[in-house]
Amino acid sequence: MKTVLMTAFEPFEGESINPSWEAVRSFDGKVIDGARVVARQLPVAYSRCGAVLTQALETLQPDRILCIGQAGGRSDISVERVAINIDDARIPDNEGQQPIDQPVVVDGPAAYFSTLPIKAIVAATREAGIPASVSQTAGTFTCNHVMYRLLHWLATHQSSARGGFIHIPYLPEQAVKHPGAPSMAAASVIQALEMAIRVTLKVDKDLHVAGGATH
Predict the structure, then answer these.
(1) CATH level 2 (architecture), domain 2-202
(2) How does pLDDT run along the chain (215 residues), one tens digit per residue?
(3) Contacts 24+ apart (CB under 8 A), 172-180
(4) 145 FRET partner, CA 20 to 30 A, in 65, 120, 138, 163?
(5) Are 100 and 89 in contact (CB under 8 A)?
(6) Would residue 49 show up in a list of annotated catalytic residues for this protein?
(7) Active site annotated at which positions (predicted)?
(8) How do strand 64-70 and strand 2-9 relate by DSSP bridges?
(9) Annotated catalytic residue: which of 22, 80, 145, 152?
């Protein structure tokens, strides 16, 4: 049986919940299209999030990896295209650390592209009536850090597994504390992530359709 590893983060920046974990934990132990899903929570801490991820990768040896994170201010399911080799924190992490212009991996490549079928995921999510898009930036906080660490691990271990990162909006109960911020219902987020799992398991070659941005 194949294994799908899903990761998500603990709350940060004063939030009492993190929508990524609220959604991802519901998948733990489920079997989707013949694959077992395992959920792991990551700390919002530069010093530990990569290590927790690596331990899960080495222990589980998953076939697919979907890392999920909160993107307050975004309005749709954002499937990330690229992770860059830089930590540049706008805010301190949950341990008070705030690296600026530091590499995620010293002497690592400048960037890695997701190995998920990102455009197929976006298309399937939209067909289900849920807003989604390809994102050209995963930021420079712990989400990008984890995505880069994941793809670096896969590349350096010559793994046939495929992985990437998806950002999700605030939940409504968070957005009410951020006037004007968009949100998405938990049920829609969960539906979108299940769609992403199914597409990732069955699609080997991504769609050749436009997914870029003009700015």
Answers:
(1) 3-Layer(aba) Sandwich (3.40)
(2) 999 999 999 999 999 999 999 999 999 999 999 999 999 999 999 999 999 999 999 999 999 999 999 999 999 999 999 999 999 999 999 999 999 999 999 999 999 999 999 999 999 999 999 999 999 999 999 999 999 999 999 999 999 999 999 999 999 999 999 999 999 999 999 999 999 999 999 999 999 999 999 88
(3) 173/17, 174/15, 174/17, 174/19, 174/72, 178/72
(4) 120
(5) yes
(6) no
(7) 80, 143, 167
(8) parallel
(9) 80
Q: What is the DSSP letter of 102?
A: B
Place of tokens 């690592």: 108
**Count of positions (residues) in the chain:** 215
Tokens at residue 152, please?
A: 């670096």
What amino acid occupies position 85? Answer: N
Residue 25 half-sphere exposure, CB side, CA atoms within 13 Å? 10
Nearest alpha carbon to residue 148 among 92, 86, 73: 86
Does 157 participate in catalysis according to the annotation?
Answer: no
* Closest to 38 (Cα-Cα) out of 17, 80, 11, 67: 67
